[in-house]
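User: Let's play a game. I give you a shape written as C-alpha cells, and you guess the letters that built it. Ready? Here's round one.
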C-alpha cells in the first residue's frame, strides 16, 4: 500500500483507564499505516494506567501525564502538541474496528478537498465487545440537524489541524457537550467542508459520561441549547429533545 501523503496525529485522553487503554493503544499500533504521531494525555491517573501505557508503548508515542481541568482541557493539550496535517481523537474506552482505518482516512484526505471527515460507529457492551447495542451513523448529517441536538459521531471525526488553529479548541467551561459546541462552531459558524466515510470505523463501549444517567442527560441538553445559542442556531427544548426519537431507531438498525 502506498503511504498516504496526509499525516495524521491521533490523541487519546485517559484518567484511571487501566482496563481499556491497552486495547485502545493496540488498535492503533495494529494499523497498516501508523499515525504520524500518537499523543496520550493522562490526567495524573491513580490506578495502573501509566503501567499499562508503558507496556503498550512503541516508538512514536508521546505521553503527557499531569493534572488537568477535565477531559476537554486534556484534549486541548493533545491538540496543542500535535503537528500532523490532520487530527483525530480516540477515547480510551474506544478502539478502531480494523487495521485499515488510518490508511482509509488519510487516503480520503489525499483524494478529497475537504477540511474534515467523519464516519460511523457502533456502541458495544463492555462485557461483550461483539454485541452491538446501537449503530450511530454519520450518514445524512447536515448542519441544520444541530438544532435537533444531532451531530456526527465525534470519535470518528478527523479535521485538518489548521481548523483548530483558526477557529479555536474545545471550550473547557462545558462539562459534557464541548464536542457538540466545537462541531457547531466549525460547521455552522465557519462553514468548514466535510465528507462522510460510509463505514463503521470505531467500536465504543456503552456507559460514557454523556449517557451515564438521567442527570448527565439533563446537563448535556442544557449545554446543547447553550452551544446553539452561542453559535446563532435557532432551536428550543422540544426540538433538542426530539433527537431521542432518532436515537431509538439506532437501537434497531445495524450496519449493512
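Assistant: Ready! My guess for every position:
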Amino acid at each position: 500500500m502506498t503511504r498516504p501523503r496526509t499525516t495524521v496525529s491521533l490523541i487519546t485522553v485517559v484518567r484511571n483507564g487501566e482496563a481499556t487503554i491497552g486495547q485502545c493503544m493496540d488498535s492503533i499500533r495494529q494499523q497498516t499505516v501508523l499515525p504520524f504521531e500518537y499523543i496520550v494525555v493522562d490526567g495524573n491517573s491513580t490506578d495502573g494506567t501509566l503501567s499499562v501505557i508503558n507496556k503498550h508503548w512503541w516508538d512514536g508515542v508521546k505521553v503527557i501525564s499531569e493534572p488537568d481541568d477535565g477531559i476537554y482541557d486534556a484534549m486541548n493539550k493533545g491538540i496543542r502538541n500535535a503537528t500532523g496535517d490532520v487530527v483525530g481523537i480516540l477515547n480510551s474506552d474506544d478502539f478502531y474496528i480494523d487495521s485499515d482505518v488510518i490508511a482509509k482516512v488519510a487516503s480520503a484526505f489525499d483524494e478529497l478537498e475537504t477540511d474534515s471527515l467523519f464516519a460511523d460507529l457502533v456502541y458495544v457492551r463492555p462485557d461483550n465487545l461483539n454485541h452491538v447495542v446501537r449503530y450511530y451513523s454519520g450518514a445524512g448529517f447536515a448542519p441544520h440537524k444541530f438544532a435537533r441536538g444531532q451531530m456526527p459521531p465525534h470519535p470518528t471525526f478527523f479535521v485538518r489541524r489548521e481548523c483548530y488553529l483558526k477557529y479555536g479548541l474545545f471550550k473547557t467551561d462545558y462539562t459534557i457537550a464541548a464536542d457538540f459546541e466545537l462541531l457547531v462552531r466549525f460547521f455552522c459558524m465557519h462553514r468548514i467542508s466535510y465528507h462522510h466515510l460510509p463505514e463503521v470505523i470505531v467500536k465504543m463501549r456503552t456507559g460514557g459520561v454523556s449517557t451515564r444517567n438521567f442527570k448527565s442527560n439533563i446537563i448535556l441538553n442544557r449545554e446543547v441549547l447553550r452551544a446553539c445559542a452561542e453559535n446563532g442556531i435557532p432551536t428550543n427544548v422540544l426540538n433538542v429533545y426530539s433527537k431521542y426519537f432518532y436515537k431509538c431507531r439506532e437501537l434497531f438498525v445495524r450496519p449493512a
